[in-house]
Amino acid sequence: MFLEVDVPICVVGKVFKPNAQKILALNRCLLEFMRAVRFYVKLKDTSRRHNQSSYEEAKAMFRLPTALIQNARDKAGEILKSFEENRKEDSVLVLKRISVRFDSRCYSFSKTTNVLTPYWLSLKLNHGRRVSLPVVFGERQRQLIEDAFQGKLQFATVEMVKRKGKWYAHFVVKKTVFFEEPETVIGIDVGENNLAVAVAFKDKPRKAKFWRGSKLKQLRWKNSQVRANLQQKNKLDIVKRLQGRERRQVNQELHKLANEIVEYVKEFENPIIAMEDLTKMRNSIHYGKKMNRRLHTLPFRQLQQFIEYKALWRGIPVTYVKAKNTSKTCHRCGNVKKLLNGEVYRCSVCGMVYSRDLNASINIAKRLLGQKAKPKSEEFGGDVNPLNQQMQITAKSLI
Ligand SMILES: [Zn+2]
Q1: pTM higher than 0.85
Q2: Cα(347) to centroid(ligand 1), Å
Q3: Which residues form the domain of 244?
Q4: What's the 285 CA to ligand 1 centre distance in angstroms?
Q5: How far is the CA of 354 from the centre of ligand 1 (A)?
Q6: Domain boundary among 154, 178, 202
Q7: H or E, element range at 146
Q8: Which of 10, 12, 16, 189 is 20 to 30 A from 255 (CA-CA)?
Q9: What tens digit of pLDDT does each residue of 230-260 get?
């Protein structure tokens, strides 16, 4: 065994017909928690270090249990980090629809013989109030919860999410996975031409696979046309509604793609996935305005995140390499081109002619092999919170 890592996944249940009192209590807690998150976002307290003075201040300001104050601080840190990673040009941070995070100090979850639903969630709210809520699950989600009750998975935190007036409990459960010593590096390049290109690398590149992502691009294009049309007619409420639908359609397509990619990866002996670290690239390189807009139209980072957590859940390690020059370098001779155009890479030094995106994915795999250093466990588990995808923030562009 090479490494042991806890991989989180999110299981969503619905709070079943809570009465008016419980709803009121949840709403009050949510408001207070949101105030606390705002307070910490303002402080820009991104570090995990315990900041005693700000904690005392928060404790005096908000009537929340200690655990919730600490969770609000953690949440603020994550929101700021995610905002920095995903920020677009001229974007401002808008906080909305924050969920309340409970951990083992302030929630308990048990299975009872109640006929309505066996699953009951008890929460410690603000002002020392406690509520007990019945939770119902869909079949697939219920199976995961049962696995957790049987000890195959571990309960971590619960996020209470309010959507369209209804309350949902997002349980984060963790699975301990064991990584074997990696043998085959799978380089995955995500990009404009081909949405993803994967290649296995063990001594030499093998069995490359291309995903054009045509359906996703079509979806984006169609939606942008519809949106432009509506904006012209000043029907902004419809635009907003469509954005939600578009996000769901795009997510569904990304999930499908990520599943296919992980299925491909599973064919290889003890694989490890290498992808480019796009977060650093985005902030350090200035593309032209047009290029920048294109970069942000397709959700590359999100695709990477989906691949990452689906792979980890199946016991496949994932790691990131520096993105610099992965497209511009010839994987055969190491020559670095100044300019790239078209879908084909032609090397002026060794004469190699190759698919540009495939050349990039080979470079990504080789870069990991070149690093030699074994990845630390926090590089795997630490940052993979399935909830980051549902983080209730929007980086709203000022147009
Ligand atoms: Zn070359």
Answers
A1: no
A2: 5
A3: 182-397
A4: 25
A5: 10
A6: 178
A7: helix 139-149
A8: 16
A9: 777 777 777 777 777 788 888 888 999 999 9
